[in-house]
Amino acid sequence: MAFRRRNKSYPFFSQEFLIQNHADIVFSLVIFILIGLMFEATAKTAILFIQPQYNVTTLSPGMITEVTLYHYGWKDCATILFYFFIAIILHAVVQEYLLDKVNRRLHLSKSKNTKFNESGQLCVFHLVSSVWSFYILITEGYLLHPSSLWENYPHVHLRFQVKFFYLTQLAYWLHALPELYFQKVRKEEISRQLQYICLYLLHISAAYLLNLSRVGLVLLFLQYVSELGFHIARLLYFTDENHQKMFDMWAVSFVFTRMSTLTLMFLSVGFGLSRAENQGLDLDMGNFNTVLIRMTVLLLVCLTQSWLLWKFIRFQLRRWREFRHEQAVRKKAATKQPLRPLKRDSLGHHENGVLKAENGASPRTKKLKSP
């Protein structure tokens, strides 16, 4: 199974060979793990990579039916590794069968091509993640009952869809790190992409490990919807530079997301958890409801939102300067005076830069006296 066209063959174990065939190598590892399910001796080990672990069967409140819930543990690393491989394969599929075909038609420059690929990949991911997270919020009832975001903390036991969502989120953002190497991202772009990748990993890991999965789910939904609008606007801009209205719509959603994030965090962590009965640190019960941890979480979120707003203001100011510069250039071009029409002379008229008399003959030029 080949994900990329082989225009040139490279020696085995070389850097170019690894970059060109990394998706095929990872696909072979995934097949090897799936084959392990077929044998009894390796099935228990293979299932660690595919299915989320640490399941607990309990009775649902008010009902006789049994419900399977999950909590986290070190075996989640194996599951994250497997879906880390899956993310690399899906990344290659989207790049080969969607983005590369569009790139060949647009004929973008190298810098724009890198940003187009980045926005294309993130647009697909944000669309899937926003729809998925919204579905979880609806089925779990978090939107209809906002107080459930902090009530009955700690939220140690998770449903399958919630835990699987967090594991795949961690796997995707971890896979984005080696993709910087596989996609040959320019050095100027690496630092910028590393910033938001590490921020996503930090916030998702904190929400998962501190048992703030419900609040984190709402915040991820808001963030992904906002980022989806930005990357759609950038894709439209690369196809046609006259598409600027989507950036204005994204600007409104960006500010709304920042304000909603800060409001929700202060409401749930600063107000809701501070009034909970079970105060204190208890690692066995998964309780991290202490003043120090709450202040650290709020400080981390506030610093992140402030940094994002600072970058947003710089981006808008740069757009405003470019717009003003374009308006000034257009105004200068419009106010340029056209060449004055040549006036008819009393002796005749001008023709091809030569003064002609009325009868067609050239008038005699006067001799200038020497000083």
Task: Describe, in plain words, how this protein is organized in 3D.
It is found in: Membrane. The chain is mostly helical and 371 residues long. The protein has a domain at 51-262. Helix content is 65%, strand content 6%. The chain is built from 9 helices and 6 strands; from the N terminus they run ααββααααααββαββ. It has helices at residues 15-35, 40-50, 76-106, 110-140, 160-182, 187-209, 213-239, 245-272, 291-335; strands spanning 55-59, 66-70, 280-282, 287-289, 348-351, 354-357. The strands form 3 sheets. A two-stranded antiparallel ribbon has the order 1-2. β5 (348-351) and β6 form a beta hairpin. α7 runs antiparallel to α8. The protein is flat, with a radius of gyration of 31 Å.
Protein traits:
two-stranded antiparallel ribbon, 371 residues, 6% strand, mainly alpha, two-stranded antiparallel sheet, flat
Sketch the major β-sheet: 2 strands, antiparallel
- The N- to C-terminal Cα distance equals 93 Å
- How many beta strands in the DSSP annotation? 6
Helix content: 55-70%
**How many alpha or pi helices?**
9
Mean pLDDT: 85
Radius of gyration over all CA atoms, rounded? 31 Å
Overall outline? flat
Transmembrane segments: 21-39, 80-99, 120-144, 217-237, 249-271, 291-310
Subcellular location: Membrane
Pfam families: TRAM_LAG1_CLN8
Organism: Salarias fasciatus
